[in-house]
Design brief:
- The chain is built from five helices and three strands.
- It is mainly alpha-helical.
- It has two domains: 68 residues, no CATH class; 138 residues, Helix Hairpins, CATH 1.10.287.
- It has a three-stranded mixed β-sheet with strand order 2-1-3.
- Helix 1 packs antiparallel against helix 3 and helix 2 runs antiparallel to helix 3.
- The longest helix has 82 residues.
- The structure holds zinc ion.
- Zinc ion (ZN) binds next to loops.
Length: 233
């Protein structure tokens, strides 16, 4: 025969199992990369791309300016080299030189702007990298602690399962099926303790005869209101 006390002990195991399973699911939901980590990494990638793009532009502009500088040097050579004597020709070279110098000035101004833009982009990249490193550090620590908790909960669950099978040993089928039905129907508590004449499952005041019957322990006695199996200590 299975007693209310035995079923109550089984219920304690089942309630502990339920809460361990819930805890384990919560921990497992938190394992893996967080949104914060993913977006911090994306920001680093974007910042790096932006800096690279500006560097490419700077390089092109550098080459461009160099080309104008070379042309300027050629014209200067002709103008001041003494080989050209014709005043009209010299006048044309002078005009070319002025135009090239204007072009070069503009290109050098743009180049300076791009260099400043690159400084900003590199500072932003550095900042994003520092933020990512900080987020990664705390994420790693958190994941390690979650893994520890997961392992502990799994161990607890295995112990509870072993305990449950020990408790089931020798229980009769009818009592167990009553327990399971009530557990499902009554939010996981199939067994209620009686305290000061009250069923602790539904708070109803129980008739004396029921309490005496439950105390005698001749068989399982159920609450007249909530039907839970009564345990009188
Ligand atoms: Zn009750």
């Amino acid at each position: 025969m299975t007693t209310a006390a035995e079923l109550f002990a089984l219920q304690e195991t089942d309630l502990a199992t339920d809460s361990t399973v819930t805890g384990l699911a919560e921990v497992e939901a938190q394992l893996g990369e967080t949104e914060e980590l993913v977006s911090a990494r994306e920001l680093v990638d974007q910042s790096r791309e932006r800096a690279k793009e500006i560097q490419r532009r700077q390089k092109e502009m550098d080459l461009d300016a160099e080309e104008v500088r070379e042309k300027t040097a050629v014209i200067e050579g002709k103008l001041y080299g003494g080989s050209v004597k014709n005043p009209k020709e010299l006048e044309d070279f002078q005009a070319d030189l002025t135009s090239l110098q204007t072009q070069l000035g503009k290109r050098e101004d743009s180049l300076l702007e791009v260099m400043l833009e690159l400084d900003d982009a590199e500072a932003a990249l550095k900042e994003a990298e520092v933020a990512l490193a900080r987020i990664e550090d705390s994420w790693k620590a958190e994941q390690a602690s979650l893994s520890d908790t997961q392992a502990t909960l799994k161990e607890e669950l295995a112990e509870l399962q072993a305990e449950r099978s020990r408790q089931l040993d020798g229980m009769d089928r009818a009592s167990l099926s009553l327990y399971e039905i009530l557990r499902e129907r009554r939010q996981s508590t199939a067994v209620a303790v009686v305290e000061r004449g009250l069923c602790q499952g539904c708070r109803i005041s129980l008739p004396m005869s029921i309490i005496q019957k439950a105390r005698a322990g001749a068989g399982l006695v159920q609450c007249v209101s909530c039907e839970r199996i009564l345990l009188v200590n």
